[in-house]
Write a structure and sequence with these properties.
Blueprint: E1 11-17, H1 23-38, E2 43-49, H2 60-68, H3 83-86, E3 91-94, H4 97-106, E4 114-116, H5 117-129, H6 146-162, H7 186-209
Parallel strand pairs: 1-2, 1-3, 3-4
Helix pairs in contact: 1-2, 1-7, 5-6, 5-7
């Protein structure tokens, strides 16, 4: 059995947008809330912005979206994306293809672990639909723990997701992106919600279906 000192690190997920006050904070807080229910202590979700409004709180309308889906927007503080923040991250989920490019400019080693959140969600949907998906549920090895099995599963997930990329391509590349609602009308925030929420649901569903036994 693992002692507390040797407990596995949580899966580290980073969400990225521009100002880190509208889109990526919503993704951060909703993924964290949902994943905490799937595997308490198994995930650490944070966010950053490529041109962050450093120190600012989440935008009020984004906070409303977080509350609508059962998350907590309180205490959020925007921060600038840096190479140091990217170090040790297991999965980067960006709000647009442009953000993905900016992440890779900072750390090219993350090429196979960085996706737009919508494309990643579509890939997981394909994995979930495959007939053999049930056979891939991770099982803790003798002497291991569900937490360590979960970490190992998620560290291998980007490669499995990328293997079905060709089966999950959108009709239009714009469907990979989440619209930026900053300084725009409530209707644009609703559009952001409509684009982002289904992706988060897909990711949480994959996590639930693959909770280690």
């Amino acid at each position: 059995m693992e002692s507390p000192s040797s407990a596995p690190a949580p899966v580290r997920i980073l969400t990225v947008c521009t100002g880190n006050i509208c889109r990526s904070p919503v993704a951060e807080r909703l993924l964290q809330a949902g994943l905490d229910q799937v595997m308490p202590g198994g995930f650490e979700v944070t966010s950053a912005g490529t041109r962050a409004m450093v120190g600012d709180p989440m935008q009020p309308l984004s906070g409303d979206v977080v509350r609508t889906f059962g998350g907590n927007p309180d205490g959020f503080v925007s921060r600038q994306l840096t190479s140091k923040i990217l170090r040790g991250v297991d999965l980067v989920l960006t709000m647009t293809s442009g953000h993905r490019g900016e992440v890779l400019q900072l750390d090219a080693s993350l090429l196979k672990r960085t996706f737009t959140i919508r494309e990643f969600a579509r890939m997981l949907d394909v994995l979930d639909e495959r007939a053999d998906s049930a056979a891939n549920v991770p099982v803790a090895d003798d002497g291991g723990s569900p937490l360590s099995a979960n970490t190992a599963f998620w560290r291998g997930l980007p490669a499995r997701a990328a293997s079905v990329r060709h089966l999950s391509l959108p009709a239009d590349s714009s469907e990979n992106d989440i619209i930026d609602p900053y300084r725009r009308s409530p209707e644009i925030y609703h559009q952001m919600e409509d684009e982002l929420a289904p992706a988060i649901v897909s990711i949480l569903r994959h996590a639930r279906l693959n909770t280690p036994a």
